Structures are given as structure tokens and as C-alpha cells.
Amino acid sequence: MALVRDRAAWLEHLCAEADGEIAHLGCADSPYTAELLAAGLLLHERLLGVCRVTGIDVDPGGLSVLRSRWPQARFVEIDLTAEVPIEEQGRYALVVAGEVLEHVADANAFLLGCQRLLVGGGRLCVTVPNACSPKIGLRSLVGRESVHSDHRVYYGPRTLVRTLSGAGFTVESMVSCFTPLAGRGGRFVFNPLLRAAHRAFHGPVGDGLIALARAQHADR
User: Is 0.85 surpassed by the pTM of this model?
Assistant: First the structure.
């Protein structure tokens, strides 16, 4: 498995190369929208600079902040586990779900909603925290779990493939990645050691996973 040093740059490149409209799910990254904007770390801001992208989120407050910042950009409030508006169905060549899947109560319903957004044969890019990250094991040794308060589940490579496949996607590729939000100590102390381990064993050592999958059907 390849190791990506910069998750946001990888996604930016993917979207810049995509042919057709793109949907970015969880674009507001609530409740940290304003904080990430101030730090220059909001992924949606980077995507707006390289592609034609629609921001989709369930949080009206976060979307309001983004609409104020980019009044000419397109944002839509949708709960993909419920009904997908007809005007959004079959519209997008690429759907990016960045750090969203681990938050949803019904992953299968969410992924079927992603199917409805896609054109036939369109692609879904999912990023999730990596349950196989050695950093998780190291924290557990000292009785600590560092996790977002809204996370419901952990995904490793096999469980992510199984979840995507069960919703009608074929996984084409998967990489592990580092993230700048994983903590300064982890970046400067552990990441060089993990890169060395990756060179030796090619395992999923990053903080997160990025899966690129193709839709096999679209239940509309």
C-alpha cells in the first residue's frame, strides 16, 4: 500500500484531474469551519481553486459560513441517508467524502446516497481515519484514545473495502496518508519512524486511509 504524505494535496490533484462535476461531502467540516478557515486548512477552499465543485453538507450553520465567504460558489444542504433531490441525482463524475463515513450512523444508506449522486460509472473517493495506524496502538498503551467526539466507528483497509463493496462499489485503489491535524508530536517524532517502517513492509501506517472506488450501479 502506498503512503501519501499530504492528504489534502492528493485530493486536490485528484479533483483537478477529474472530468466532470465534483461533489464534496462534509465540505463545512463542522464544528471547526471557522477555525480551519482561519488556519488555511479547510479542504474545500483548496478544491475551489482547482475544479468545479459543489459543497454538500448537513450543517446549515457551516454552510452559511461558506456561502458568506464564497457567494459565487455552489453549496447544497443534503442528508444523503434520506432522500436525494432529483436535481442532484446522476450529476457528478466524482464524489469526495473526506472524513465523513466514520461520522454517519448508517454507512450503507450514506453510500447508497453517494451512488445516487454519481453518473453511471462515476467514482467515489472516501477518506477515513486509519484503525491500523500504529499511533492508535501507542496511545492505548498509556490508556489514551484520541478521537473526534462525533466518530462512531473505526475503519481499517479490509473493513473499508467490505463496507464499500457492500454498497455496490468496486475499490480500485487505496493508500494510507498522513494528516497535519494528527498532532505536532506525531508528525515530528513518529512520522519519520513510520516512513521507515513503510519502506520495509509497505503497510498501512498513516493516520488515514484514502479509497478510490467506482460505482457499479446507481439506485435512483
Answer: yes
